[in-house]
CYTH domain-containing protein (Actinomadura vinacea), 183 residues
Amino acid sequence: MEAQEIEVKYRVIERDALVQALATQGVVLSEPVLQEDQAYAPAWWDYGKPKGGVPFGRLRTVRGKHLFTVKTPRDNEMACLESETIVADAGQMHDALLQMGFRPTVQIVKERRTGRAGRWSLCLDEVKSVGPFLEIETVTSAEESGLAVQAQLDAWANGLGVKLERVTDTYDSLVRLAQDQLA
C-alpha cells in the first residue's frame, strides 16, 4: 500500500507558550537532535515551478546514520506520497541521485524535538537561517484526502491557544528564500 505523509507547518511566534501548551495536551518532547538534510530535485525543475506530481529527494544525516526519502506532492506540497529507507553510504547515494537525474538544491540544518499527540507526530524545529517551526504530521493511505486531514491537523493546532503562523512552503523553499534575501 502506498503511504501518504500529510502535514501542516507553522512559524512559531512564542516558543515557550507553545511548549507549555503542548505539555498541557500531554505531549512530551524529546531532547533536541541535530538533523542535516540535503534536498534534491529533478535537474529540469527549479524553484518557482509547480511541485505537484514531481518527485523530490532528501538525504538526511542524524547521529551518523543516513535516511533517504522521496516525496511526491499530491494535493499540495505538504500532502505527499512518501518512500524512505536507511542507506549505508551517503556519498554513494548522492552519486546515485546525480546519475538518476537529480541535482542538489539546498541544505537544511535543524535541531528537532519530537513528540506525539495520538496518531500524530509533532516536530518542534529550530531551522538554521529561518527560525522556529512546529510541524504536525500523520501517515495515511494514498486514497485519503490530504486537504481533509490537513484541516483536522490545523484545527488541533489552532486549539492550542498560542500564536502560530501557518506556512505552506517546505523547509527547502523557506531556506532557499532566506538565502536569496541574503544575496
